[in-house]
Amino acid sequence: MPKDLDVAKRAKVIEWLKTEVVDHVSRLFKALWEGSTARVSDSIASLIMSSYILGRRLGVSYREIDELLIDKLKKHKQEGHQLEEWYQDISTLEEHLRKR
Predict the structure, then answer these.
(1) Do 66 and 55 reside in the same domain of the chain?
(2) 84 and 95 in contact (C-beta within 8 Å)?
(3) Cα–Cα–Cα angle for 88, 90, 95, rounded to 5 degrees
(4) How many Cβ atoms sit within 10 Å of the Cβ of residue 35?
(5) CA-based angle 52:78:45, to the nearest 5?
(6) Which of 77, 86, 95, 100 is most exposed, with minimal Cβ within 10 Å?
(7) Which range marks the domain in which residue 79 is found?
(8) How far apart are CA 12 and CA 3, in angstroms?
(9) What's an example GO BP annotation here (predicted)?
């Protein structure tokens, strides 16, 4: 494949993935409005999947995303994030990621 076509194809895929992320956020909000637990779960899973793939297409490995996420969780925990104080969500997610 000529280099120009490869660059154009890669740019087009990145733009498509960006629209996928926005679409999944929209679907999540609609599912929340409708109160559909199954659709909420599906939308969240799709959003996470598209975000990981977009990151990879932008040159960030899945492992690096996981490590950055764990670092961010540690920082939020140290800073006393309200979700940690109220529900221990930060610790729970950090533990889940470490067990994977």
Answers:
(1) no
(2) no
(3) 95
(4) 8
(5) 25
(6) 100
(7) 60-99
(8) 14
(9) nucleoside triphosphate catabolic process
pTM of the model: 0.87
Clarify whether residues 69 and 80 are in a common domain: yes
- Within a 13 Å sphere around the CA of 30, how many CA atoms are in the beta-carbon half? 9
Cβ-proximal residues to 31 (8 Å cutoff; 6+ apart), any chain? 39, 40, 42, 43
Considering the domain architecture, whether residues 54 and 74 belong to the same structural domain is answered as no
Q: Do 32 and 70 belong together in one domain?
A: no
Please tell me whether residues 65 and 88 are part of one structural domain. yes
On whether both 34 and 82 belong to a single domain, the answer is no
100: confidence class by pLDDT, cuts 50, 70, 90: confident
Taken as a whole, the chain contains a residue count of 100
- CA neighbor of 62 nearest in space, from 90, 100, 89, 91: 100
Q: What percent of the chain has pLDDT above 90?
A: 89
